[in-house]
Design brief:
The chain is α+β, with helices and mostly antiparallel strands and 567 residues long. 42% of the residues are buried.
Length: 567
């Protein structure tokens, strides 16, 4: 009974343990999931010790919270306890791009639970023995020489740094994964080395990525072995035996793999078997290696192994190195959030905002505050004016003496009334003409026109006062969405540019950046929509007040003409 209770308790705790945070000292982590089920990239065998590239960018990693050189990075296995060896090929905190290679102990077939965690965000982190490491730390046991072409001096070297090219090679900064070699016909020559000697019938695998500019050129040559492009087709020759595969598309990255095992030579293109021939017998392979002789284009990730790579390994490495979205999914989390549980979606979006989007949103924030101030102040002003106008008009229409409305306290009682101010303007004109005095003759037609013209002029000025600052609302209505759209377009451009540079094309990498860019449009609409409602409301109230003023002018002039005009 006790055993059953204990098992039940363990089962209940499993979900909690599975989502435990490795260390509270690290404030963020990126979850990398490798899906080898039929919904992802299906494998039929377990792979051990494989080195995979993990691409980090603004969509799946918070570079602001990490150290500028990435020295606080830690990589954990799926149990969130076991440290994994990794090597940082590139860490650019300014452009928010990084590539690190991680040695994954095992990748199980038929599951979407192959998970590793990349931790960052600890200013007090001390140097770690598992990383940032060297290329040799992550290479598997079957790799004899791995060339990433990431050297600063352009001299290609293997993971140990002992096998080096004779001369420097031009590079492409944003290549397949990180930096790639750019060739223009002159080969990369790797001197003869005992590690690179293969006896007759010994297993051998050569894997590399190519992006040819032309349809011809030798990709790899060593002794009797030659792997080349001939009229756009991949061709392999070993002694008297040759094999030809399908087309290798120019200006497009393609994975090319050659495998040799006793009695057989096989070619693979983009993870798919392309050709196979029998070898009987296979000659020994040694001597210097010439990479890219007569070839024009880019080359990356040259891997020479003393084992025959399996179809599962080739398929997996093609998907991993090309950042196939079906295989690789990434998600960033923060400690203490719900998704470490999980953070608010808006929190994720705000973290993914690019600097230009922040600038646009800042400008829109200022516009919104100005629009709010204008709407509130104008609403109060219009309300006071309208109420005071109603009081004055009521007294004006109830009083017989048109020249004595409000008396001495009129200014105090109707000070907010625009109509009262028009009345005072007309009264001043009548006073100048001594209207109402016993010895003053009746007003003539031209005099009445002059009085009306004076009141009309003041009516126009009152209209200016009523409409003042309304232009700020029209700017918010018209300019807000366009500014937001500008922020979105620039944000989307930057997101796609960073993803193109990083080479990570899975939807989890793209979505946060695109969604964050759309925040600028949301901000623009958030400014424009309230401003539109406020503008229409105020414009309606102002139009009513303006109509009341015009009606008052006609009423006032008519009553003065009836009382004091010439018969």
């Amino acid at each position: 009974m006790k055993i059953a209770k204990s098992l039940t308790l363990v089962l209940l705790l499993l979900p909690t343990l599975a989502f435990a945070w490795w260390s509270k000292d690290w404030v963020q982590r990126t979850t990398v999931t490798l899906n080898t089920s039929t919904a992802g990239v299906a494998l039929d065998a377990t792979l051990t010790g494989v080195a995979i590239p993990v691409r980090l960018h603004s969509g799946n990693f918070d570079f602001v919270g990490a150290r500028p050189d990435g020295s606080d990075l830690r990589v954990m296995a799926g149990d969130d306890k076991t440290p994994l060896k990794f090597w940082i090929e590139r860490f650019d905190s300014v452009n928010e791009l990084a590539v690190l290679w991680v040695q994954v102990p095992s990748v199980l077939p038929g599951t979407d639970k192959n998970t590793i965690y990349v931790y960052a965000g600890n200013d007090k982190a001390v140097p770690d023995a598992n990383g940032p490491g060297t290329p040799a730390a992550v290479a598997d046991a079957g790799t004899i020489a791995a060339f990433h072409f990431s050297e600063k001096d352009g001299i290609a070297a293997d993971q140990t740094g002992l096998i080096k090219a004779a001369t420097a090679t031009a590079v492409e900064v944003n290549g397949l994964i990180g930096q790639s070699a750019r060739l223009a016909g002159t080969p990369i020559i790797l001197p003869s080395n005992d590690k690179l000697k293969f006896a007759a019938a010994a297993p051998l695998s050569v894997s590399l990525w190519v992006r040819p500019d032309a349809s011809t050129g030798t990709l790899y040559a060593q002794g009797p072995l030659q792997l080349a492009l001939v009229a756009g087709k991949l061709t392999a020759k070993l002694g008297t035996v040759s094999a030809t595969s399908g087309d290798v598309t120019p200006a497009t990255w393609s994975q090319v793999v050659l495998t040799i095992e006793p009695g057989k030579l096989a070619l693979y293109v983009n993870g798919v078997p392309a050709s196979q021939v029998l070898l009987s017998p296979a000659p020994a392979i040694d001597g210097e290696i010439r990479v890219g002789e007569g070839y024009q284009g880019l080359i990356d990730e040259l891997d020479i192994s003393n084992v025959t790579r399996t179809p599962a390994w080739i398929t997996f490495m093609y998907a991993a190195q090309s950042a196939d979205a079906k295989l690789i999914a990434t998600k960033t989390e923060n400690s203490g959030s719900e998704s470490s549980g999980g953070g608010s979606y808006f929190g994720i979006l705000f973290k993914s905002l690019t600097p230009d989007a922040w600038v646009i949103i800042g400008i829109l924030g200022v516009m919104f505050m100005i629009a709010v101030v204008v709407m509130i102040s104008k609403s109060l002003y219009v309300r006071r004016t309208d109420n005071a106008n109603r009081l004055f008009l009521q007294q004006f229409r109830d009083t017989l003496d048109v020249l004595n409305i409000g008396g001495e306290k009129g200014a105090e009682q109707f000070g907010d009334s625009s109509i009262y101010r028009l009345y005072r303007s007309g009264l001043q004109q009548l006073t100048k003409r001594k209207v109402g005095q016993a010895d003053r003759p009746a007003l003539s037609g031209p005099s009445m026109d002059a009085v009306k013209a004076s009141i009309d002029a003041d009516s126009v000025r009152e209209g200016y006062a009523l409409n003042s600052q309304m232009v700020l609302l029209t700017i918010a209505i018209a300019g807000g969405p366009f500014l937001g759209l500008l922020g979105t377009v620039v944000g989307v451009m930057i997101t796609f540019a960073s993803i193109a540079a990083a080479g990570d094309v899975n939807v989890n990498a793209i979505a946060p950046g695109i969604a964050a860019a759309l925040l600028a449009t949301v901000a623009g609409l958030s400014v424009a929509i309230p401003s539109l409602f406020g503008y229409n409301y105020l414009a309606s109230r102002i139009k009513t007040i303006s109509s009341d003023m015009q009606i008052f002018v006609d009423e006032f002039v008519t009553r003065v003409a009836e009382t004091y005009g010439a018969p």
